[in-house]
Each structure stands twice: as structure tokens, then as C-alpha cells.
């Protein structure tokens, strides 16, 4: 329609004009405005600049809004950053607390196991070197073993000293030096201990055969056998097998019984490589552990271990084959004989003796008396204040008891 006053046609919105005027005019930019008097399409005056009615656009917008947007519109709900998931719906089930903690503990255990395994492999590789036995050791062939032994004295009746678990021939030195004044004294390293060559099986039968072969190899006739702790089982078994080759028998801090002592059978399945190797080497290489065990077993009457003393106890566990020997002995447990077999010693004619430390916590208080009755020995000798390592803490009393037994030796 032409304005009669100025003859100018009214401004028509341009197609690219999206300003307020285009919206207010309600005219789509891409279609011409209908002429005056022409009928407008129904709802045309309700459409916006996009050609859709406000009502329809609002419906589409409401339909397209995600649930997260509705959650953000609620009071107290923080806005969710773009590109992130919205809040967990209220109806979604939550894991029980114990399952969450179990998952955390499982992951922690897995990480610790991986770290422990890695440390074990590295530590074992770093400590894989073995030490050499001391120079000047003496050996003798005893069946399938090369047995290391020590000898003291040059005259008198023979005495053979047999050590206990985790000991060696060197443990007998304080007693042997006293006995050597009137006797020929010998101490050997049993299979699996000291510096004797190691060969399975590490059981009592093998040790007994080694001991009897040792007597034959050195030509010892009817020696007095002294067995400390678990070494009592070896001398008892030797005396029962060959009573005519033994001149006397002393149980020192030992009952020679098969009590099943030692780690349970499941131990070797639980403590496996590489962890058992790591544990053993950590223990053996610790001066504190060696001194603590020594002090607990020896008591206040024993001299304190200096560096040389610690090395004397440690070194046999670091030579080639020592670790396999230790695990082999643990497999069989502490050697011993059943009670009915031990009672057969009563019928042997050899003199017998039982000597215990009065404060020995390894055995019960009445163990010494019971052991003496079991093997047919006189009342036991109890050394006041001594614990399990009487051969170190009370060497003079032990030597005196051995000399008394040697005086009654069967010639």
C-alpha cells in the first residue's frame, strides 16, 4: 500500500534481517508479505521468524531438553559442565558399602603383591652370590657324603660329639677343648648342616648312616656318643642299630622323640619361591636376628656374640647348597624316634646319661626325668641357670658330665 502523504513505500524487511523488527512483523524473510486484503493463513500472526508458532517451538524445545537440564533447574542442584554426565538418577541402585571396601582392599592387596614380588626378584638377584667355606677344613668320605669334621686331643678314649639343628661342629669347641686334655674328641657336621656336602634325603635314617660310616672311616672303637638337642635322635638310632659299636650314650638337652615338631606340611606350599628365598636371606644376613636367637637359647651365661661369632653362625647358611638343604630338612621336620623304640635302649648294656639345662624352655620341666626313665639312665643332671645351649653357657659342667660317662664306658 502506497502512503498518500509522501508517496514512499514502507520499508520491507530484508531476507537477512533477523532483528526485532522482523520478529515483530511476523513475516518470514524468505516469502513475500501478502497483499492488503488478502487472507492470511491461520495462525500466521502467531508465528515467529522461523515460521513455527511459539507454541510449537516451545513444545519441540521442551521435548529436546535432556533430563540433566531439568535437574539443573531444580533448586540446590549444581550446574553440570558441558560434556559431562549429569547427576545419578535417584532410582539407580548404589553398591553396598562392603562391596566398595572389598574392591578397594582387593586392589590394595594386588598392588602390594606386585611390589613384593618385584622386590623379591630384585633382592634375590642382588644376593645370589654364595660364600666359600673357610680354608683348611677337614673332610672324610662317609658313604654318599663328604663329611666335614673337627678333631681335638691326641690320646685317651674316643668321644664323638653330634650337634643339633642350626648348629655345626664348631658349636662344640668350648666343650671339646676341655675334653681334649684326656680324650680324643671328634665333632662332625651332619647332612644338611655346617660344611658337609648336602644330599637328600635329609631325614634321620640318612644322618644315622652317616654317623656310623664316620665311626668306620676314622676307625673309632666304642666311642662315647654325645648328642645335643635333635642330635640325640641320631646317636640313639645309631646305638640301637649297632649297640656293639657304641661305648656310651649321653642325651644333652634333647629327648630324641619324634614329636612332629617343625613347620606344618602346608608351610612349604604357602611360602614359595621367590619369597621363601628372600625371607631366609633377610634372616641370615641380619646380625640382630642371629644375636636375638642366640641370646634367647643361650641365656645370660653365654658370652655376647662379636662380629666373628655372628659370622661363625651365619656362614654355613650361605655356602652353595645350604638353602636347598634347609628347605629339605624343614620338609622332614625335627628328627626323632617313637617312644616304644627308644625304650629298647634299656636293654643295651652301654652306660647312659641325660643332662639338661634347668631353665631350658624348649622342653617341659619333667622332660629330663622322663627321658632318663625311658632309656634306662640314672637320674638326670640339671645345670642350674642354663638354658638350651648348655654346651656354650655351661661348657665346664657339660665336660665334667661327659668325663664321668666316659669313665663308665664299655671297653
TrEMBL record:
<keyword id="KW-0472">Membrane</keyword>
<dbReference type="InterPro" id="IPR029058">
    <property type="entry name" value="AB_hydrolase_fold"/>
</dbReference>
<feature type="compositionally biased region" description="Basic and acidic residues">
    <location>
        <begin position="9"/>
        <end position="19"/>
    </location>
</feature>
<keyword id="KW-0812">Transmembrane</keyword>
<keyword id="KW-1133">Transmembrane helix</keyword>
<feature type="domain" description="AB hydrolase-1">
    <location>
        <begin position="158"/>
        <end position="264"/>
    </location>
</feature>
<feature type="transmembrane region" description="Helical">
    <location>
        <begin position="105"/>
        <end position="123"/>
    </location>
</feature>
<dbReference type="InterPro" id="IPR000073">
    <property type="entry name" value="AB_hydrolase_1"/>
</dbReference>
<protein>
    <recommendedName>
        <fullName>AB hydrolase-1 domain-containing protein</fullName>
    </recommendedName>
</protein>
<dbReference type="Pfam" id="PF00561">
    <property type="entry name" value="Abhydrolase_1"/>
</dbReference>
<feature type="region of interest" description="Disordered">
    <location>
        <begin position="1"/>
        <end position="93"/>
    </location>
</feature>
